[in-house]
Amino acid sequence: MDDIRMTDKRLFGWRVRSDVLLPDLLDWEGDDRIPDVLFTVGAVQKGHEDWRSFTPGVWVGPAGELLLCIPDVAAYLVEGGSQVTIEPFLPITAPDIRAFLLGTVLATLCFNRGMMPLHASGVATPHGALLVSGNSGMGKSTLAATLHRCHHLPLISDDMCALDFQNREKPVLWPAFPRLKMWRDSAQSLQMSTTGAERTRGEFDKFHIPVAAQDFHADPLPIAALILLNRCPRPAEPQITQLKGLDVMRQRDMVHRWILGEALGYGPLIFRGLASVARAAPVFELTRSDDLGAVPDLAARIIELASSPR
To answer: Confidence class of residue 233 from pLDDT cuts 50, 70 and 90?
Structure first.
């Protein structure tokens, strides 16, 4: 295949060898270990008698395997936490294929490999990772972009990062890759050009905005603070509440694809990961309006939270 070449990349500390071009990921510069994860292009077996249907197009296997079939995009088979087979229904370079590979498939790999995927965007501060979590559309990317561009803080993730909590008292966060995903209006509010930028999916008015490698923090770091975003229906002053203990552990939405993770058998891992976050980092719930003009002040307040003594 002329438009495919093997390339080794870095992702969550893993060495990734991929048939699919992954322009957002940093090159592997570590040791000469064999790849931890392989992304290969090939035919995907669709029928597995002992697998359970999770949702339309999604099947889970008895050992944490995943079969994900996205009509008109691709089928993905995840096995053993180290092997992903991709059967494309679009040209292999289409961003739609990477959208699911670096989303649901990547979250599954994290679960398989004993890490908890966090549904969060964030930046690196002198105190550690400042993370912003929330459901899609809550403004994670816009806040992360504001913290990065206006406060000159290195980006660590946009939408997903990975928590390694083998040391339960001192979990560390693995950054993702140097890229932002921005809706056109949010990008314009930050004077970020989308001219020539790749769309995240063919039909979306949302774009991949590359971040220079020197403006990205690539190494693992502790969590300084985690902000959970909610939205109020009308303009109002932001409301900030600190959560502790069990209230933090109830916030399963901070886990990327947590319902799928439980279906795969990783409920205990999610429980331990949330407990680790509750012990190690201050967690705040922030309710905000949709006003893009309020984002700069909101970003400044969030930085204060990450800098305050716990």
So the answer is: low
